[in-house]
Amino acid sequence: MLNASHHLRFAAAREPISEGYPAVAPPHPRGFSVKFPPPGFTPSPSPLTNSFFTVLTPQELEMRLQWMFYVMTKSENHDAAPFKEMILKYLDQRELQTMASLLTSDSDYFLMIARNKNGSKRIQKLLGITDDVDTFAAAILGRFLHIITDKYASYVARRGIAVFNKKKKEAMYERILHYALYIARDKHGCLALNDIITDADDLYYRNKLFDVIAHKAILLSNDAYGNFVIQHVLKLNDLCCKNNIVVSLRGHFVDLSIQRYGSYIVNLLLETEESMVVVVEELLEGDRLMRLTRNAYGNFVLCKALRVTLKEMVRTDLYWGLVHKLKPFHNPLRRSRGSNIASILDSIC
């Protein structure tokens, strides 16, 4: 099955997916200072409807944006809880929509609020109680990379995917596909991508994400964060995606086994029979086993390979193939990193 690579689907065989993603992190938004209100400041219950749609001077707009930042980010542990009080007591649906328009009117302010722990939670709440999602969708898409790769702001994007209509969800998925490799290799982006893949209710886009990930499995397997995406996808047990990943990684299992991040992937592939066969057959090729025994990560991969082939015994030739190749080095292994392998060999002698 795994050998029949021409039957496996890849994104490259379908509609081409752009691999244009930044080589470095995107620049931070333009800097400006936010003037926090003085202690004891209490915003008026509803400053949104006072001629909001009339032409505002830059100073008036700045004051409203400052007010919005204060309301959205102020800690609820303080005596005053302006956001909670405003939502519960003062705002009707029309004012909520007006608030959403103000919140998204300046992309830098929106991003700063989304990156704030409290701000992120409150934007998510607004996404669930107002129908005015057009402005939110545009704001998220407009600063997508900054949002999806931020610890707190990424939850805003995830919430958006959950509540947006089909058209807006598709726009979000297209943006994710375009930047998938960059997101997967980001500290916070990889976690967001894993959740998005798990929760995706559109099989078409879920499969396209699988295709992108499988097609670039080598790149991601050797990456400090990308490897967690590969591990996550493998654990979802999508047979076609797993087969595609194995096809992409074939010929690289030895090199991956001696790398910290790559060894995680090889160990995971050893846990299922079909992929285990492909991995062990490659480990047995040539004189590669001793290279693994001398490596801090490779010797653990070998131990795992010995245990799983012994346990399964579906392909006894694989187990005994490993044993026969390792036996001549039994004594040297006792005095090296491979002492754990020597212990396994002792148990069968």
TrEMBL record:
GO terms for biological process: regulation of translation. It is found in: Cytoplasm. PROSITE patterns: PUM, PUM_HD. GO terms for cellular component: cytoplasm. Pumilio repeats lie at residues 139-174, 211-247, 248-285. It holds the Pfam family PUF. InterPro entries: ARM-like, ARM-type_fold, PUM-HD, Pumilio_RNA-bd_rpt. Keywords: Cytoplasm, Repeat, RNA-binding, Translation regulation. Residues 3-349 form the PUM-HD domain. One of its GO terms (molecular function) is mRNA binding. This is PUM-HD domain-containing protein.
